[in-house]
Amino acid sequence: NFDKYNPFTLKGTPPPALSSLLFESLLTGTMDEPTTAYGLLAEDVSVSADRLSATFKIRPQARFHNGDPVLASDVKYSFERLTSKQAAPQFRTYFSEVKGLTVLADRVVRFDFKRANAELPLIVGGMPVFSQKWGADKPLDQVVTDIPIGSGPYKIGKVDFGKDIEYVRNKDYWARDLGVRKGMFNFDRIQYTYFKDEVARLEGFKAGQFDWIAENSAKNWARG
Fold first, then answer.
1. Radius of gyration of the chain (CA)
2. Contact by Cβ (8 Å): 152, 21
3. How many CB atoms lie within 10 A of CB 19?
4. β-pairing verdict for 128-129 and 164-169
5. By Cβ atoms counted within 10 A, which residue in 106, 141, 203, 215 is the most buried?
6. Using one digit for the tens of pLDDT, what is the confidence trace for 135-159?
C-alpha cells in the first residue's frame, strides 16, 4: 500500500506515479535521446566556459497547482530540502558535485559545481521542483500527508488512503501547449488500485476492473 504523499523521504511508501505526474524539473529528456535535455520549467540554460556553473532562466508562464509562479526561490528551496538530512540519502549523493546555488533574479538561478563535468547541468536540470509553501513550517521528513504543491499536469483526486489513488488532469496546466508537452497527458483520470491478494488482483483484471497489469507469474501468464 502507500502511506504518504512525499516521495523524497526514506521512511514510508508513496503512491505510484506521483513524482512524474505532479512534479516537474527545469529540463526534461526524451526516451530516444540520451544525454539530451530540453527546457521545461526553464526557457533558457547557459553553461559557463569553464563548465563550473550552469544558469537557468525560468519561464514566466510556469505555475504551480495553487496558481503561484515558479520562481528561483522555489528552486533554491527544493534543492536545500532535497540535500538536507531529512531527505532520502540518495539525493545528497546525486547532487554531491554541486558546490552551491545562487538566486540571481526572481526567475534566474545559478548552480555552481565542484568540478567540470558535462553531465552536471543535466543532473541539476532534472531536479524536481516544488513550491516553498509545501511543508514550509516543518522538516521535510515530517511532511507526510500534506498535498504536494507541484507544477505537473495532474493533481491528486479521490483517495481511499492506502488502497486507491486517483490523479485528475489539471485543466489549467501551464505547459499544455509547450513543445516538449504537446500530445502528452491525454487521460482525464488515472487511478491506481492496490490488491493485497494475488488471486483477487488477477480476477479483478479479468473482470475488467482495471486496464493494465504487470504479470510476473509464468503460471498466471500461461493459464490465467
1. 19
2. yes
3. 16
4. unpaired
5. 141
6. 988 999 999 999 999 999 999 999 9
